[in-house]
UniProtKB/TrEMBL annotation:
Signal peptide positions (record): none
Protein name in the entry: DUF4339 domain-containing protein
UniProt keywords, alphabetically: Membrane, Transmembrane, Transmembrane helix
Upper lineage: Bacteria, Pseudomonadati, Pseudomonadota, Alphaproteobacteria, Hyphomicrobiales
Ranges for domain GYF: 4-53
Entry annotated with the keyword RNA-binding: no
InterPro entries referenced in this protein's UniProt entry, alphabetically: GYF_2 (IPR025640)
Domain of life: Bacteria
Name of one Pfam family that matches: GYF_2
The keyword Transmembrane appears for this protein: yes
Annotated TM spans: 104-128, 148-166, 173-191, 211-238, 259-280
């Protein structure tokens, strides 16, 4: 019996057995203008365009072809589209109220120190679910807070010990340790990304020495007042190149100038406190729109 897929709010839903799919049509979930797909179809089509589907007729004839074509940003590809070597820009979508209360909970958790690893993972799971990736529906984060516990509390104990010793050299080494922990955090987060509940198998291959170098360069660039924006753009491109395990290249298109003026506007608006959620969403949407998935070898 045929299995059906349909598109809803940019996400691929299914597969559904034909009987269940017919029920969705009867309930109005699948409408005449809904994009649908089943085996034997070259690409996504509106339900009304398929003979016998809307109106109670029989299912269209089947032909032996592969799985469903994956959906891309702003539309739906034919077989072998974004699910294979295609691409498109990322997007971020979240409500202002939800962002506000979740951010307040995160801030409180960080202030109280002990709940920080669990609150951080909880917040990351939510924010990752708000990211839309072409051909990767229902993005999620599967990391466990217990992984962070020894890193987080170990660093706190080390920082307290160094503060009692009062050594400037050890304080500088603590800064390096902090950078290393951020590097480990990035590797852990990338490795725990999943789509539709299945691990993506990604890995972050940027070396610790390169990450330390970028971090120090960024810190130095702040002295120039504006140079940090170009360093940030270059670091983003390095970060994207360092993510492996996908058949598509991750490319950051944003420039230093674009980061600079947006950073200035964001700093001015955030000084008024109330616009912070809107500013955060605006910045995240821009960074996502500048991050594209492209067929390997196409650049």
């Amino acid at each position: 019996m045929a299995s059906w897929f349909y598109a809803s709010e940019g996400k691929q839903q299914g597969p559904f057995p034909e009987g269940q799919f017919r029920d969705l049509i009867a309930q109005g979930v699948v409408r005449p203008d809904t994009l649908v797909w089943t085996e034997g179809m070259a690409g996504w089509q509106k339900a009304a365009e398929i003979p016998g589907l809307i109106g109670g007729g029989g299912a269209p004839p089947m032909m032996p072809v592969g799985g469903p074509p994956m959906m891309g940003a702003g539309g739906y590809a034919s077989a072998g589209g974004y699910g294979g070597a295609g691409g498109g820009s990322l997007a971020v979508d979240f409500g202002i109220l939800e962002f506000t209360w979740r951010s307040i909970v995160l801030l409180i958790g960080m202030i109280f120190v002990l709940p920080a690893p669990w609150v951080f993972v909880w917040y990351t799971q939510w924010i990752v679910s708000c990211v839309r990736v072409p051909g990767r529906p229902n993005l999620s984060f599967t990391g466990n807070a217990m992984t962070l516990v020894p890193w987080y509390f170990g660093f706190i104990v080390l920082a307290i010990a160094i503060s009692f010793i009062g050594s400037q050299l050890l304080s500088n080494l603590l800064f390096i340790v902090q950078i290393v922990l951020y590097w480990l955090l990035i590797k852990w987060m990338v490795a725990n990304l999943a789509s539709n509940g299945q691990p993506l198998g990604l890995s972050f291959t940027g070396s610790i020495w390169a990450y330390i170098g970028w971090s120090l360069l960024f810190a130095i660039s702040i002295i120039t007042i504006i140079g940090w924006a170009w360093v940030a753009a270059a670091q983003m491109r390095w970060f994207c190149r360092s993510v492996e395990g996908t058949r598509r290249e991750i490319v950051f298109k944003g420039s230093g100038l674009e980061i600079l003026w947006r950073g200035i506007v964001a700093a001015i608006l955030c000084s008024f406190i109330i616009p912070i959620p809107w500013v955060y969403r605006w910045i995240m949407n821009w960074f996502a729109s500048q991050t594209e998935l492209a067929p390997r070898g196409s650049l």
